[in-house]
Amino acid sequence: MVYYGQTSCEQDTERYLDVVKYVFSSYKKEVPLVVNTMGWVKGEGLLLLVDIIRLLSPSHIVQMDVYDWKAMAPLTPQYIHLTPGLYTKGKQQGKCRQMDGSGAEDWTPSEGEEDVSAPEFKLLYVHPEFPRAGVAGEVRVHSSILRDMSILGYLGQLQSPDIGAVLPLHCLVPYQVPFSAVALRVIHTDVAPTNIMYAVNASWVGLCRIPDEIRGQSDGPVLLTQTPVCDCLGFGIVRGVDMEKKLYHILTPVPPEKLRAVNCLLLGSIAIPNCLLVGQHGVEGEIPYVTSDYNYSILGSGKLKKKHFKRRREYAFECDYT
């Protein structure tokens, strides 16, 4: 597993491809592999998808279209062969016997020509015919809600099965990790070294393992200058930073035997669900990590906002149950 650290790869497509290559390199081909690609299929997203198909060389592609949407051509072997990707080039069209307005999909080589480099896979094209299938804005659950539910389920492993009530963050016992034991890197933006601890505190981090030895130049944190593509052993929350004792306080359900291999913390743009911060029960006075006395004009600051999603409209369709 590799921690990409962002909900979209639009800002760093090169690293996204590097991550895909790194993960795919560990595939032993002993069992079938199913790759669920992302939903970004317009503009550069479609070009990136072409690159990924060329990289993975699948045996089958399942393309699910939506009703009355013609923006994306069928991903036939000919289309993948001829279409340039974001970082790869398509095959130049040779001398053809016939070429009509439909483009690459109907391209056929002349007699005596055989293109051995064309990809070989079977396209399974699914095109629903019922109305409003896949209409944007009418999904049952938004991706941000699913992401929060996944994080909450992961952190649920920190709760004791013998206790009925859910313990808030400040009641859970964290691991103490010395500054010198792990390297630190913010993935999604540039942060000044003097502000790095403000960014790390109360943040969601990937617990990773890099092959390089960690060597601190001073008593401060060990900072990486580039984002590594490396194994991620799990996730955690930096519950606090002790600047006097030079310690990170980290909450994580990763077992201790795996934590011994962790030597890198990667901080991305994935946020801790707001309910974990504002819903800490049993607290008298100010809630930990939450304050209203803050200067919101500071670059990078922001308020915790509640998300209001419109209720999905219901449509009645006549069905034939015979």
Description:
Residues 2-65 form the Clp1 P-loop domain. GO terms for molecular function: ATP binding; polynucleotide 5'-hydroxyl-kinase activity. The protein has 322 residues and is α/β, with parallel strands linked by helices. Among the domains are: 34-95 and 102-126, no CATH class; 143-278, Elongation Factor Tu (Ef-tu), domain 3, CATH 2.40.30. The chain is 18% helix and 15% strand. The chain contains 7 helices and 9 strands; from the N terminus they run ααβαβαββαββββαβα. It has helices spanning 13-24, 44-56, 77-82, 143-155, 196-200, 256-259, 274-278, and strands spanning 60-64, 122-126, 175-178, 183-186, 204-209, 222-223, 231-242, 247-251, 264-267. The chain has a 7-stranded mixed sheet. Strands 1-2 form a two-stranded parallel ribbon. α1 (13-24) runs parallel beside α2. It starts with 12 loop residues before the first helix and ends in a 44-residue tail after the last helix. Residues 94-116 and 311-322 have low confidence and may be disordered.
Give the topology, please.
Layout: H1 13-24, H2 44-56, E1 60-64, H3 77-82, E2 122-126, H4 143-155, E3 175-178, E4 183-186, H5 196-200, E5 204-209, E6 222-223, E7 231-242, E8 247-251, H6 256-259, E9 264-267, H7 274-278
Parallel strand pairs: 1-2, 4-6, 4-9
Antiparallel strand pairs: 3-8, 5-7, 5-9, 7-8
Helix pairs in contact: 1-2
Subcellular location: Nucleus, Nucleolus
Family: Belongs to the Clp1 family. NOL9/GRC3 subfamily.
Organism: Heliornis fulica
